[in-house]
Specification:
Layout: E1 12-21, E2 28-34, H1 41-49, E3 61-67, H2 83-95, E4 105-108, E5 111-113, H3 117-124, E6 132-141, E7 144-153, E8 161-168, E9 171-174, E10 184-187, E11 190-199, E12 204-212, E13 222-229, E14 235-242, E15 244-245
Parallel strand pairs: 2-3
Antiparallel strand pairs: 1-6, 1-15, 2-4, 4-5, 6-7, 7-12, 8-11, 8-13, 9-10, 13-14
Length: 246
């Protein structure tokens, strides 16, 4: 069992979350690398927001929008951007033997995915059973969430590590400069905090930690995403759970 405490637990607040993804079926991680400074990105983000309505809910696809910071010097500073997300995109490109990064870029389970609509995404999802299960529980405490994540690996699974992110839905920005000047941009599944990787130890690992909310993050519109990836970034299981009132 792996126990990590970033800070002592604080009094419980108004957000609780709970979710599980069993080993019988894999949920896929869909990463979107995006920026408010990119005029090609709003259609990709709108498409991402429509996944559940298209029948691709979090039991099948866990979406995360990573706002990169390398657009910030080109006219508009994206308040959701982080150098951590730009580094993750560069790491993914390097694993594929490339130095090219761009927005919007989508990856499914760590593999570059060329946009082909909801039907194309369905056809790209793995059809076999997953060999790993995930569970997550969380409760608001002070400036963030006390999280407990559990990973259970089946026989034959390669060495894996666990990643966590806090995300937020229903965000809006009125852009006053750059390629999207004058537009009201809407965002869902925006990564606000990223933690990991945490190497797994044995067939069952339990991780406990406190993740802080980003500045201005609304707990009631937030959630936690958890996924397992190997050293090459290939995702073996994913899970998302949304906050509800406690």
């Amino acid at each position: 069992m792996l126990l990590i405490f970033a800070q002592p637990a604080q009094a419980a607040g108004a957000c609780v979350l709970s979710g599980a993804q069993e080993a019988g079926r894999q949920a896929s991680l869909l990463e979107l690398y995006t920026s408010e400074g990119c005029s090609s990105c709003p259609p990709a983000e709108s498409w991402l927001s429509g996944l559940a309505m298209a029948g691709l809910d979090a039991k099948r696809v866990v979406p995360l929008a990573f706002h990169v910071d390398y657009w910030d010097g080109l006219g508009w500073r994206d308040r959701f951007a982080s150098p951590d997300y730009s580094r993750r995109q560069r790491w993914r490109a390097a694993l594929a033997g490339s130095s090219l990064i761009y927005t919007p870029q989508m990856l499914v389970n760590g593999h570059d995915w060329r946009f082909s609509g909801y039907d194309g995404l369905r056809a790209s999802l793995p059809g076999g059973q997953a060999g790993a299960a995930l569970r997550v529980r969380g409760r608001q405490a002070g400036d963030g969430l006390d999280i407990e994540a559990e990973a259970v690996l089946g026989p034959g699974e390669p060495p894996l590590r666990l990643m966590l992110a806090l995300f937020e839905d229903g965000l809006q920005s009125r852009v006053s400069a750059g390629e999207n000047e004058g537009r009201l941009l809407r965002h869902d599944a925006v990564a606000r905090t990223l933690a990991g990787p945490f190497p797994l130890s044995g067939a069952k690992t339990t991780l406990k930690l406190h993740l802080r909310f980003a500045v201005g993050q609304r707990p009631g519109a937030s959630g936690a995403a958890v996924w397992l990836e190997d050293e090459r970034g290939r995702v073996r299981q994913a899970l998302a759970a949304h906050c509800a009132g406690g």
